[in-house]
Write a structure and sequence with these properties.
This protein is an alpha/beta fold and about 475 residues long. The radius of gyration is 24 Å and the shape is elongated. The two termini are about 25 Å apart. Helix 1 crosses helix 2 and helix 1 packs parallel to helix 11. The strands form five sheets. Strands 3-2-1-16-15-14-13 form a seven-stranded parallel sheet. The protein has a seven-stranded mixed sheet with strand order 4-12-8-9-10-6-7, with helices on one face. A five-stranded mixed sheet has the order 21-18-17-22-23, with helices on both faces. The protein is built from 16 helices and 23 strands. It holds the Pfam family PK_C. Its EC number is 2.7.1.40.
Length: about 475
């Protein structure tokens, strides 16, 4: 039921690898724009489309923008060794060569933001906690635009770009880089992309302090625990995770947790701690688990997806749905809105009659997401009914978009029904769509004969929740 987001990159962008990832359980593909150019990602996207066609599995696309990343620029790409207790200077002069004594950076305002004693981390793909590939620096003095640091641990930096992170310091860089803004302008030129959902990535103390306001305007939240683990003392991360996930759950907005099985980048098995961490993220209420380096450059992308899926499934068996349901109903309070009351009733009925699936007819996907908000123990089949629209010049469908977007919501499984004319919504067409949904459920093994199924649909102006008992 918990969704898996896989980041596509060098080790996972071939069509057959993407196909295997889809079969293993990836339902959202993430494109990380903090490296690689647009052409590179476009090629990967074309490969994803081919893989979707061949596996017949829907997959959503997540574009992760560059954002305000401080980076060390290493033009020669030679490895840089740093020795504990030595000193290294960070300089905004990018004409200089990177070396063990000097690291050029892409931001001239760093010296202004820092005072002696401040903590800086530098590493590739940020910091996993295995500190041989990332280094911890302490600022000893600020000289003009340069920052002189004491090296706290020996490490070797390899590659062309290292990310730099200053703990608990406000860096005066715009959240959207010029590339990001170009992307947004380009999107709006392509037509109406108001349907595109925007997820906020919380990665520092500032994000935590403004969490409630961010949650109100975002369509979903990504907890970037790699960065948070540096900005927060390690003992605080779990507390924030629990409270943030709870808030997302109550708002009915998808919550995604990152950095779960870092050790699987190079190994076939996760550590015990990592396996427990994945299970706890599910028990805490997360909608999806996001894999970064593990699938992007890891040696075992398909196995990682498969193992994370197995751990999620085990945790879901012991998820305390009863307590969660009561808490959510109490939080929503009374009087409930029409949709909220239908959604909670559908889930309650399904649990009482031990239904094997809830089928929800929806055009925007909103009703299905509300049902999923109450975390039923059975899958929610959201039957998205595409609508034909015309602007007098040509006809277009809406629906595929909404179906894909729900692929990041826990327990929600979209399928597209036959498109229909806006005027059509007779009970006969509803019955035929229901039959298609039931057949789909049988084919995928979630519905068997003699099962009970809860159906939620709109008939005219009213919403109906009904329980169907299936014969042979």
């Amino acid at each position: 039921m918990t969704k898996i987001v896989g980041t596509l990159g060098p080790k996972s962008r071939a069509v057959d690898t993407i196909s295997s990832c889809l079969k293993a359980g990836m339902s959202v593909a993430r494109f990380d724009f903090s490296w690689g150019d647009a052409e590179y990602h476009q090629e990967t996207l074309e490969n994803l489309k081919l893989a979707i066609k061949s596996t017949k599995k829907l997959c959503a696309v997540m574009l992760d923008t560059v954002g305000p990343e401080l980076q060390v620029v290493n033009k020669s790409e030679a490895s840089i060794s740093l020795e504990a207790n030595g000193t290294v200077v960070l300089t905004p002069d990018q004409g200089q060569e990177a070396s063990s004594e000097l690291l050029p950076i892409n931001f001239s305002g760093l010296a202004k933001a820092l005072k002696p004693g401040a903590t800086i981390f530098v590493g590739q793909y940020l910091f996993t906690g295995s500190e041989t590939t990332s280094v911890w620096l302490e600022v000893s003095e600020v000289k003009g635009d340069d920052v002189v640091c004491v090296i706290k641990n020996s490490a070797t930096l390899a590659g062309s770009l290292f990310t730099l992170h200053c703990s608990q310091i406000h860096i005066d860089l715009p959240t959207l880089s010029d590339e990001d803004k170009e992307a947004r302008e380009f999107l709006s030129k392509l037509g109406d992309l108001s349907q595109t959902q925007i997820f906020a990535k919380i990665e520092n103390v500032e994000g935590l302090n403004h969490f409630d306001e961010i949650l109100q305007v975002a369509d979903g939240i990504i907890l970037s625990r790699g960065n948070l683990g540096i900005d927060l003392p390690p003992e605080k991360v779990f507390l924030f995770q629990k409270s943030a996930l709870h808030k997302c759950n109550m708002a009915g907005k998808p919550a995604v947790v990152t950095r779960v099985v870092d050790s699987m980048t190079d190994n076939l098995r996760p550590t015990r701690a990592e396996a427990t961490d994945v299970a706890n993220a599910v028990l805490d209420g997360s909608d999806a688990i996001l894999l970064g380096a593990e699938t992007l450059r890891g040696l075992y992308p398909v196995e990682t997806i498969s193992i994370v899926g197995k751990i999620c499934a085990e945790a879901e068996k012991v998820f305390n749905q009863d307590l969660y349901f009561k808490r959510t109903v109490k939080y929503v309070g009374e009087p409930m809105t029409h949709l909220e009351s239908i959604a909670s009733s559908a889930v309650r009925a399904a649990i009482k009659v031990k239904a094997s699936v809830i089928i929800c007819f929806t055009s925007s996907g909103r009703a299905a997401r509300l049902i999923a908000k109450y975390r039923p123990t059975m899958p929610v089949l959201s039957v998205v009914i595409p609508r034909l629209k015309t602007n007098q010049l040509r006809w277009s469908f809406t629906g595929a978009f909404e179906a894909r977007q729900s692929l990041i919501v826990r327990g929600l499984f979209p399928m597209l029904a036959d498109p229909r004319h806006p005027a059509e919504s007779t009970s006969a067409t509803n019955e035929s769509v229901l039959k298609v949904a039931l057949d789909h459920g049988k084919a995928s093994g979630v519905i068997k004969s003699h099962d009970r199924v809860v159906v939620c649909q709109k008939v005219g102006d009213s919403s109906v929740v009904k329980i169907i008992e299936l014969d042979d």
